[in-house]
Amino acid sequence: MTRQRTNSVIGSRGKQLKNAILGLLKGVGNRGATIHDIRSRLRVGAQQHVDRRLRELDASHTIERRREGRNTFYVYKGVRRKRLNSSAISKSLRAEVLHAHGRQCQMCGRSPAKDKVRLHIDHRIPRAWGGKTVFENLEPLCSACNEGKKNLFKTLTSKQMREILATKSVHERLARALHATPGKPVPARFLMLVANSGTVQDDWQKRLRELRYIGLKITVSRHKTPEGHVTTDYTLTNWVRLPSDTSERIRRIERSRAARRTPQ
Ligand SMILES: [Zn+2]
Fold it and tell me: Cys-Cys link to 161, which of 28, 98, 111, 129 (CB 3.0-4.6 A)?
């Protein structure tokens, strides 16, 4: 069984929780509250992202962070008169993204310290495709990789990509992303993004391989970047019209194959 959970790279969730956090922070005043306080006072489940909700609140409210030993206290200071530009990356968000990824380009692995490259904070799913300026959708890329990514993405129209990313079936998302540039190699990283938009996939490569059950042919090629990193590309070499129930059909084929493999 595949574990699927929602993520908020696209769209916003957790409005109720945001309001509850706001109410709590207003109530405690300048004392502030830690994420642990918020979790226990609001009885928030482990699967809910309090840190993410706090970052979202930053757009419309001033919430200061106060460090005390190992704890960070969130202190409510009021409503922002001007909403932060939702597409601008704040200094603290930038620092958080760089820190989380070890100050390295997420495509080639080079870093400013060792390789003298410049890192940009890149939207994994571009804003034009509906990607949000949130921690989960940001990563550092060096100038060269950023350019390379832009060149690939230029070949895809925003309308087309918005439609693909909004498609519910992960199989259909992958098939249509490959079909957007038939016969041309598509980087694995790009397909991974497409697979994980909306629902987080445990094994997106398996979903890709399963497309052959319905007649798609996909070839795999690997090559080394000048920096010695191995990258994988996928090329669509045979396309069929997708059935309206692609994922369901693939599941059925898989079940019947499994039944044949297992002696009753
Ligand atoms: Zn790079």
Answer: 129
Q: How many A from CA of 143 to the centre of ligand 1?
A: 7
Q: How far is the CA of 166 from the centre of ligand 1 (A)?
A: 28
Per residue in 180-224, pLDDT tens?
988 888 989 899 989 988 777 889 999 999 999 999 999 999 988
Of the candidate CATH numbers 1.20.120, 1.10.30, 2.60.98, 1.10.287, the domain formed by 85-154 belongs to 1.10.30
Q: How far is the CA of 145 from the centre of ligand 1 (A)?
A: 4
pLDDT in tens, 98-125: 999 999 999 888 899 999 999 999 999 8
Q: Taking the domains of the chain in order of start, what are their residue ranges? A: 15-79, 85-154, 155-264
Work out the angle at residue 151's Cα, subtended by the Cα atoms of residues 107 and 212, and round it to the nearest 5 degrees. Answer: 75
Q: How far is the CA of 146 from the centre of ligand 1 (A)?
A: 7
Inter-residue long-range contacts of 163-168, CB under 8 Å, 24+ positions, other chains counted: 164/194, 165/10, 165/125, 165/129, 165/130, 165/194, 165/197, 165/198, 166/130, 166/198, 168/198
Ligand 1 centroid from CA 225, angstroms: 10
Instruction: Report the separation in Å between the CA atom of 141 and the middle of ligand 1, taken as the mean of its atom positions.
Output: 5
Look up the CATH architecture of domain 155-264: Orthogonal Bundle (1.10)
**15-79 carries CATH number 3.40.1800:** no
